[in-house]
């Protein structure tokens, strides 16, 4: 098609400029690619970009184009202060790792727009622009990006922005939609953070916002209601009321200079300077005279006020970006002037064309592109009431809420707490972020990473009613739970705190109880629950007639479940392939056995996908054989013989040049296998110890943590000749036995998703939570006595931390125990999942769908859903028995996934 020729032409104007050494990051491991360069968007305009590839899987993860506001402010503020993989330190010289980076799951292109902002420039000095021209040049920049990075051509694309990005993003998105036939882009959605979407609403709602926060007395409020504001700031005295407050976050400290803050607030009501750069410099007015004479006359009266607004101190960022070494690393031309967060010349000369984004948003939704509007609820500059009223004014159908089955606003939760409120419309989600100001990704980083993860994956956590009656499961009657066919087993009635379940797939499966230990006032508030999904129980046929002992979900597609069985069989289960209703055909439809002459001759103890690709996986057995597989051919391509029982194996999933496989085999050596070269001769020696478990760090692919039979933990740096960095040990309060050794044993190690915490499980039935960077013990959690006797010597537990709460799922006999590892010394919430009728060997957490997957000697794989952070009022348990709730997903009855 002709757009291929357009790409060739664009390629002449741009090239990928890789960042090879980034000053200030020497202490960090940069395990991803990043680039900095220029897009030529007109004859004289060049826009600077900084592109960060995904830290997860850059070949498949979504692609984001990010724009900060102003107009006239740099998008690098978003990169280095908000959601980038590294953020600026206070010293202005070094960068630090951002554990809540959005690039952990997306590739992000930060574009400094328009020309004249940051390091973007004009060759003829003309930086005068407007909304239309900015949108056109931003569209040209996107086209230029795909010319320079053609491998991202088919990725899911999202366009996002903040503040005056509420103008940039919709106007750009409409151009992308209109140009789709000529230049196709796989556009999935847009997101606006505290977006400036309506000038009139922003002015009017600022009065309501001030009154609702106790800034206006009743007499003034009554006067304002009579006279204000109808979109005209001249008739309001709001700036006098809020003069000493932080306009970006009402509850953060700011400069006490009232005159300076008045100017900031008044400017922001018109969206003319939605950024914390200097208001004035060298007695030059920030804004040129406009039609609203009194506003800008006011500014002219205070032109002597100079300097940065202390509400948001960007001095460290400015210092870093102007460092000569940084400029060279980013390929910045030497003749460019000093970098600043905002360019007041852009703001002074910027012509606003659009005052209301409603027509643009309607067209975007009509094109099938999802819209997310999120607002920090303490921002005075672009307040959430504007966004709420704007969303309602679009007259979109309000969808049913999943829990209440009513239409309207409902809370969303993070870390078991209300994190804000959302209203879901057809095609649009309006979201508030509790306690966040103008820069929600910076001030509520964990919550916003959670929002981003849900949105970028296009996840649709099922909200379809789960009719238990139709499948001979439980029936709610008069507030009690009973069974249809097995009332004699546990009695005719049970407390609403207990659910009785049937294993619908297995004839010999016994019913069990989902027990909820209601601790810490959960009985008055919410109750966590998981249940077996009847269409996702996978029985193994006689061809795989042994229990499943090891599992792993592929980290690329999050779709294929790798299973290792007791008799050496390897199988791959497609978790997303629709299952037929006829259970006799389920195995043939879903399970793919791997046939090979080199199958294991004994029990599979470990199996794992290659962390960066689904074409390869590795398996290990009880007699010490390790097989490397070609997944496409289902054949072994390499094998290693260690001649010792392998208790645990882990393939490094950090992005390093040569990811190694670490193997623990109850000897004093940790074997490191390099699958690229076939070398397995390198060992880490731990004298007088027997290694029982290993785990690579999620942040640094050269750091390995190992546990021993004696209960010690060693942290290794595999690059160093003296590899041992430190040795630690959990509390010695209890003793246990491993093969009659009479001492403690570290039977499992797992890192939390953010890599900040390490969880170890000892055979004295103790979970120990460590701070990963310092190996400081944070908490001990002891398994309840009734479960401790069921713990096997080799335990395949997993971390299921999805919302900031650290949880584990652990096999205990023929059950699965969900245990919350509170980071304080409190009682810990427990849920017991019962559905297997023989011992459970392994359980893992499926991150994409927030599900627990368990397998056992009954040759059954159970998938427990919905997501584990669901919490429901105790009095609603009767009604819940017929529903599968989801506090996050939005639309019901819509085909395919949804944006948020």
Automatic annotation (TrEMBL):
It is an enzyme of class 3 (hydrolase). Residues 881-900 are annotated as: Disordered. Keywords: Carboxypeptidase, Hydrolase, Protease, Signal, WD repeat. One of its GO terms (molecular function) is serine-type carboxypeptidase activity. It holds the Pfam family Peptidase_S10. Its EC number is 3.4.16.-. InterPro entries: AB_hydrolase_fold, Peptidase_S10, Ser_caboxypep_ser_AS, WD40/YVTN_repeat-like_dom_sf, WD40_repeat_dom_sf, WD40_rpt. WD repeats lie at residues 684-726, 833-865. It comes from the Eukaryota. Residues 1-16 form the signal peptide. GO terms for biological process: negative regulation of chaperone-mediated autophagy; proteolysis; regulation of protein stability. PROSITE patterns: CARBOXYPEPT_SER_SER, WD_REPEATS_2. Belongs to the peptidase S10 family. This is Carboxypeptidase. It comes from Litomosoides sigmodontis (Filarial nematode worm).
């Amino acid at each position: 098609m002709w757009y291929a020729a357009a790409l060739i032409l664009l390629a002449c104007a741009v090239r990928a400029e890789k960042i090879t050494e980034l000053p200030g990051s020497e202490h960090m491991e940069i395990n991803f690619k990043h680039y900095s360069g220029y897009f030529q968007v007109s004859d004289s305009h060049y826009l600077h970009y900084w592109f960060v590839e995904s830290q997860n899987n850059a070949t498949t993860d979504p692609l984001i184009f990010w724009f900060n506001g102003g107009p006239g402010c740099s998008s690098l503020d978003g990169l280095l202060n908000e959601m980038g993989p590294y953020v600026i330190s206070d010293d202005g010289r070094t960068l630090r790792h951002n554990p809540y980076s959005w690039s952990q799951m997306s590739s992000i292109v930060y574009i400094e727009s328009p020309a004249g902002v940051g390091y973007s420039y004009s060759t003829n000095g003309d930086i005068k622009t407007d909304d239309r021209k900015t949108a056109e040049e931003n569209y040209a920049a996107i086209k230029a990006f795909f010319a320079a990075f053609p491998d991202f051509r088919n990725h899911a694309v999202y366009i996002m922005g903040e503040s005056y990005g509420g103008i940039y993003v919709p106007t750009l998105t409409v151009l992308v939609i209109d140009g789709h036939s000529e230049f196709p882009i796989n556009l999935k959605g847009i997101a606006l953070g505290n977006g400036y979407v309506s000038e009139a609403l922003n002015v009017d709602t600022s009065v309501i916002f001030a009154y609702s926060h106790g800034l206006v007395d009743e007499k003034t409020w009554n006067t304002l209601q009579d006279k204000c504001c109808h979109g005209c700031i001249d008739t309001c005295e709001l700036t006098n009321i809020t003069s000493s407050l932080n306009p970006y976050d009402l509850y953060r400290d700011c400069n006490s200079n009232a005159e300076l803050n008045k100017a900031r607030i008044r400017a922001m009501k018109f969206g003319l300077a939605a950024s914390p750069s200097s208001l004035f410099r060298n007695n030059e007015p920030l804004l040129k005279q406009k039609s609203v004479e009194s506003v800008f006359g006011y500014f002219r009266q205070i032109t002597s006020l100079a300097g940065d607004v202390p509400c948001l101190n960007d001095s460290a960022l400015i210092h870093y970006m102007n460092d000569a070494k940084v400029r060279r690393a980013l390929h910045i031309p030497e003749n460019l002037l000093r970098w600043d967060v905002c360019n007041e010349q852009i703001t002074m000369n910027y012509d606003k064309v659009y005052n209301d984004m409603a027509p643009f948003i309607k067209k975007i939704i009509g094109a099938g592109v999802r819209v997310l509007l999120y607002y920090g609820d303490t921002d005075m500059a672009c307040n959430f009431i504007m966004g709420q009223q704007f969303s309602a004014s679009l007259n979109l159908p309000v969808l049913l809420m999943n829990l209440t089955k009513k239409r309207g606003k409902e809370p969303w939760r993070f870390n078991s707490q209300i994190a804000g409120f959302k209203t879901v419309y057809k095609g649009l989600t309006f979201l508030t972020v509790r306690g966040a100001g103008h820069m929600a990704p910076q001030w509520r980083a964990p919550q916003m990473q959670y929002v981003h993860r849900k949105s970028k994956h296009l996840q649709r956590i099922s909200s379809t009613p789960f009719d238990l009656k139709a499948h001979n499961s439980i029936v709610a009657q008069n507030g009690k739970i009973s069974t249809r066919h097995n009332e004699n087993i546990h009695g005719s009635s049970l407390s609403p705190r207990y659910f009785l379940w049937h294993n619908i797939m297995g004839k010999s499966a016994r019913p069990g109880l989902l027990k909820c230990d209601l601790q810490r006032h959960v009985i008055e508030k919410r109750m966590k629950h998981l249940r077996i999904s009847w269409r996702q129980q996978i029985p193994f046929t006689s061809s795989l007639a042994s229990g499943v002992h090891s599992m792993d979900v592929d980290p690329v597609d999050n779709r294929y479940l790798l299973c290792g069985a007791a008799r050496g069989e390897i199988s791959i289960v497609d978790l997303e392939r629709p299952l037929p209703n006829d259970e006799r055909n389920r195995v043939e439809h879903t399970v793919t056995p791997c046939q090979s002459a080199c199958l294991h001759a004994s029990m599979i103890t470990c199996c794992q996908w290659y962390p960066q690709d689904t074409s390869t996986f590795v398996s290990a057995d009880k007699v010490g054989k390790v097989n490397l597989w070609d997944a496409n051919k289902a054949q072994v391509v390499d094998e290693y013989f260690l001649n010792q029982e392998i208790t645990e194996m882990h393939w490094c999933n950090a992005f390093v040049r040569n990811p190694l496989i670490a193997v623990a085999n109850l000897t004093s050596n940790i074997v490191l296998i390099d699958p690229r070269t076939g070398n397995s001769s390198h060992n880490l020696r731990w004298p007088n110890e027997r290694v029982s478990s290993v785990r690579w760090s999620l942040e640094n692919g050269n750091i390995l943590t190992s546990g021993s039979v004696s209960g010690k933990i060693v942290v290794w740096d595999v690059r160093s000749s003296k590899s041992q960095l430190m040795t630690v040990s959990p509390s010695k309060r209890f003793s246990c036995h491993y093969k009659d050794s009479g001492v403690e044993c570290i039977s499992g190690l797992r890192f939390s998703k953010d890599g900040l915490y390490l969880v170890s499980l000892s055979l004295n039935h103790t979970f120990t939570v460590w701070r990963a960077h310092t190996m400081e013990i944070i908490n001990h959690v002891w398994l309840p006595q009734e479960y401790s006797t069921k713990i096997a010597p080799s335990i395949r537990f997993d971390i299921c931390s999805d919302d900031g709460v650290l949880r584990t799922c652990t096999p205990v006999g023929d059950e699965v125990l969900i245990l919350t590892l509170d980071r304080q010394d409190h009682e810990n919430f427990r849920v017991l999942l019962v559905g297997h009728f023989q011992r459970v060997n392994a359980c893992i957490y499926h991150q994409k769908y927030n599900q627990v997957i368990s397998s056992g000697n009954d040759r059954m794989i159970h998938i427990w859903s919905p997501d584990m952070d669901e919490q429901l009022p105790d009095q609603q348990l009767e009604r819940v028995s017929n529903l599968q709730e989801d506090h996050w997903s939005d639309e019901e009855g819509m085909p395919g996934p949804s944006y948020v």
